[in-house]
Amino acid sequence: MGSNPLLKVQSAGIQFGGLKAVWDFNMEIHQGELVGLIGPNGAGKTTCFNLLTGVYVPTEGDISLEGQRLNGLAPYQVTRKGISRTFQNIRLFNELSVLDNVKVAYHSLAKHSIVSSIFRLPSHFSGEKEMEEKSIEFLKIFQLEPYLYEKAKNLPYGMQRRLEIARALAAGPKLLLLDEPAAGMNPQETHELMELIAFVREKFNLTILLIEHDMKLVMGICERIYVLDHGQLIADGTPNEIRNNPKVIEAYLGEEAAESHAESSPN
Amino acid sequence: MKKVKGFWIYVVLSVVIYGVVQLLINGGILNPFYANTLIFIGINIILAVSLHLVIGITGQFSIGHAGFLAVGAYISAIITMKFQLPFPLALLAGGIVAALAGLLVGIPSLRLKGDYLAIATLGFGEIIRIVFLNIDYVGGASGMQVTHLTTWTYTFICLFITITVITNFTNSRHGRACISVRENEIAADAMGINTTYYKVVAFALGSFFAGIAGGLFAHNFYIIQPGNFGFLKSFDILIFVVLGGLGSLSGSVIAAILLTVVSTFLQDYPETRMIIYSVVLVLVMLYRPQGLMGTREVTDLFGKWKGPKGGNSYGK
Ligand SMILES: Nc1ncnc2c1ncn2[C@@H]1O[C@H](COP(=O)(O)OP(=O)(O)OP(=O)(O)O)[C@@H](O)[C@H]1O
Ligand SMILES: [Mg+2]
User: Fold this and answer.
1) Rounded distance, CA B124 to CA B104, Å?
2) pTM recorded for the entire structure
């Protein structure tokens, strides 16, 4: 791990009124890694994502991507710097078509101005055409092509999750944040999702940080794992180290480790 | 390519509507009362469509639209009456100043959401009215004399430009950005959309066309008074948009036509007018809470032109 990290978080934290939701949070993620962030309910995982993406401004500490400081940037600016995300509770543009959901993510890649759109100048047509072609190309990769003109809200749940990931990727991130992508999925869908994550990682040369409750999934695909409890990091390491870390077992894994062993052993 | 055809159908249809009405007026078949009603419908459509951009497309519940109508009305009246400059210039100036007023009101208030935004815009609308009420230069409460300059031709040209510009804006990456703000502001932000920018742009563009409508409105009467631009006027415009279906441009056009016709013919019975108005609204809320058109457009009803919303256009 000699090279400079892609993402570097130094003792970041945030308070809501008196409540310290997250504090002294340190994290380093290197290009190409797939890292997990786990912890019991209410541990502060989503809050960490909100800190990284500019939804919350950290009350302490530093966050930087490729050496550039991100603190204080608005979410849209953070996205343009190269971090995009999905949400724990899906947030699609429901009334828009699948195609248009992805086009929105391509927004800042196109350059035609408001004036050129209003007067339908050539740059409008070429810009819109390029967005459309790229978006369709993109949706093919995610096997969403048959649903291009379907409203996002009409897709089945699993496909909505897939579209949300596709949309986040269309924004062109260097680092992709996935907040419980497998939540609410059946085992078959979860399996497909894992394959999808592995696939896009390869294809887009991505770095991924993933929050997940499904231990089997996390232990199965993540190279490193950070564990958060009551707003504080209590451990980080390889899946094996985490599995055997007494602090983690005590704080969190206890029951679920047993569960995941039970799940994975017989069958 | 088929969308280009759609655009030409729209242009031809517009020319035909314009020409037929103009012929009827010239031939004396349409008496001045009906001609005036048509002009009034045109003005109301411009108002409805401009507010549709703010509420229906961008999802910002602004209810002070009459304030920008007032700005356009007074500025254009000043230009024609005090400076004796040509009417088209007055219309444009009214629109531009209204857009500036839109920026001034929009930049602070669009930080607010939901009810708070509604209250803030309502308040700003009233402030604008009261400012005019207290300026002696424009006649204060007794109002300002204005020459009758608005014709069917001016109205129709403005209407055509309004609808074309707003449709073109909506069916582009910029309009899509506005719709994404309406659909889910947090997600739009996370996708790299500068949400504040687009809210302000939509608001200023909506205010611009409200200002144009103001110019037509002022020069369609012989006098304008601050009382013409109270919050009841704002509600009238709001009702066009809600009744037509939030997010549907053709819905707000249809609603503006329907309600203008209803209220014109009930003009002499103001009490009955309010009752019928209320009954219409209650019926719509009961049977079509999504508005007359929902989020669909008239063009969706013709299978051929069917396409995804927000991203397609007749121009493409
Ligand atoms: N905007 C906020 N204002 C006040 N408290 C907040 C805010 N956002 C989060 N919190 C608090 O911070 C804590 C961490 O919440 P967070 O959503 O990050 O947990 P989580 O680890 O994602 O949990 P889950 O597994 O349930 O998703 C919770 O106690 C929550 O109530
Ligand atoms: Mg969470």
Assistant:
1) 10
2) 0.91
Nearest Cα of chain B lies from the Cα of A30 at a distance, in angstroms, of 22
Residue B234, pLDDT score? 93
Among candidate residues B244, B220, B208, the one with its CA nearest the CA of residue B50: B208
Contact call for B310 and A100, based on CB within 8 A = yes
**Beta-strand pair B144-145/A60-65:** unpaired
Residue B26 belongs to some domain of the structure: no
The confidence score (pLDDT) of residue B311 equals: 37
Instruction: Give the residue among A221, A209, A181, A205 at the shortest CA–CA distance from A83.
Output: A209
Residue A252 has a pLDDT of 65
The interface pTM score, or ipTM, of the predicted complex is 0.90
Distance from residue A223's CA to the centre of ligand 2 (Å): 21
Residues of A in contact with B315 (CB under 8 A): 120, 124-125
- Whether residue B5 lies inside any domain: the answer is no
Residues ≥6 apart with Cβ < 8 Å to B129: B66, B67, B70, B226, B229, B230
In a domain, B37, yes or no: no
Encode chain A (267 residues) as per-residue pLDDT tens digits.
457 899 999 999 999 988 899 999 999 999 999 999 999 888 999 999 999 999 999 999 999 999 999 998 999 999 999 999 999 999 999 999 999 999 999 998 899 999 999 999 999 999 999 999 999 999 999 999 999 999 999 999 989 999 999 999 999 999 999 999 998 888 888 888 888 899 999 989 999 999 998 777 888 899 999 999 999 999 999 999 998 888 888 876 555 544 555 444 343
Q: How many domains are contained in chain B?
A: 1
Predicted confidence band of residue B6 (pLDDT cuts 50, 70, 90): confident
Residues of A in contact with B187 (CB under 8 A): 87, 91-93
Contact B103, B204 (CB under 8 A): yes
Structural domain harbouring B71 = 51-311
The CATH number of domain A91-172 is 3.40.50.300: yes
Which residues are within 5 Å of ligand 2 (an ion), measured at CB? A 46, 88
Determine the distance in angstroms separating the CA of B40 from the nearest CA of chain A, rounded to an integer. Answer: 26
Amino acid at A256: E
Say which CATH topology domain A1-82+175-267 has. Answer: Rossmann fold (3.40.50)
User: Domain segments of chain A: what residues?
Assistant: 1-82+175-267, 91-172
CA of A43 to the centre of ligand 1 (A): 7
- For residue B254, the cross-strand partners are none
Which residues are registered as beta bridge partners of A84? A176
Closest partner CB to A79 (pick from B165, B179, B190): B190
Residue B20: inside a domain: no
| Residue whose CB lies within 8 A of the most ligand 1 atoms, among A14, A46, A89, for a mutation test | A46
**In angstroms, what is the span from residue A45 Cα to ligand 1's centroid?**
8
Chain A contact residues (CB < 8 Å to B): 53, 55, 74-76, 79-80, 84-85, 87, 91-97, 99-100, 103-108, 110, 112, 114, 117-120, 124-125, 127-129, 131-132, 148-149, 167-168, 171
> CA torsion sign, A148 to A153 to A159 to A161?
positive
Helices (H), A82-211: 98-105, 114-118, 122-141, 157-170, 187-204
Residues with CB under 6 A from ligand 1: A 16, 19, 21, 39, 41-47, 88
